Amino acid sequence: MSGIGKVAEALELPCKYCSLGCMEIFPYYRKLKHEAQCNFRPYNCPYPGSECSVVGDIPFLVGHLRENHKVDMHIGSTFNHLYVKSNPREVDNAARMLMVFNCYSQYFCLHFEAFLLGMAPVYITFLRFMGDAVEARKFGYRLEVGANGRKLIWEGTPRSIRDSDQKVRDSHDGLIIQRSMALFFSGGDRKQLKLRVAGRIWKENSN
């Protein structure tokens, strides 16, 4: 190893996110690897799709979602929301919707998306926690859709917004509803999506 390499190996540097709270100090060669996974690194904007490159802490992103993406903000741990789409045969990015809930002094993102599961058009709805995965595991949630004597229910743990909405969707970690069933739940002539999603968020027991 060259003299410069030995100096670099011996050099210890603070994480570049030290101003955000990280107190770790690493040898030069381990610093970059740590920073890619540092719990104090800024979060990416959780708005569906990868077009938005904004990063920041949670309070900043909440304001960003409200002001720049015009996302609906709600207070409370229960919800009952009606998704309406006039042309449910479209399966594209336009069929992505997001709502944010403030409860337990935390923020949660409720996603509703259309995509193709193989060749089958489906909808998926899931919850992401605005924080890291360790904190996310302190909460649980339930989603429910139904009508005409039929009901679909999902219970799970919210994923952290460290995981993109596409990653959550592709892992099928949420309530998946076939389009034919979604239109059945919508009633009427089944040509318009009117799907009511009810749910609640709770804090898991810490014992």
TrEMBL record:
Catalytic activity: S-ubiquitinyl-[E2 ubiquitin-conjugating enzyme]-L-cysteine + [acceptor protein]-L-lysine = [E2 ubiquitin-conjugating enzyme]-L-cysteine + N(6)-ubiquitinyl-[acceptor protein]-L-lysine
Domain (SIAH-type) ranges: 10-70
PROSITE patterns in UniProt: ZF_SIAH (PS51081)
Keyword Transport: no
Pathway: Protein modification; protein ubiquitination
Alphabetically ordered keywords of this record: Metal-binding, Transferase, Ubl conjugation pathway, Zinc, Zinc-finger
UniProt key word Transferase: yes
GO biological process, one term: ubiquitin-dependent protein catabolic process
GO CC entries: cytoplasm
EC supergroup of this enzyme: transferase
PANTHER family linked to this entry: E3 UBIQUITIN PROTEIN LIGASE SIAH, RING-TYPE E3 UBIQUITIN TRANSFERASE
Protein name (record): RING-type E3 ubiquitin transferase
Organism: Prunus yedoensis var. nudiflora
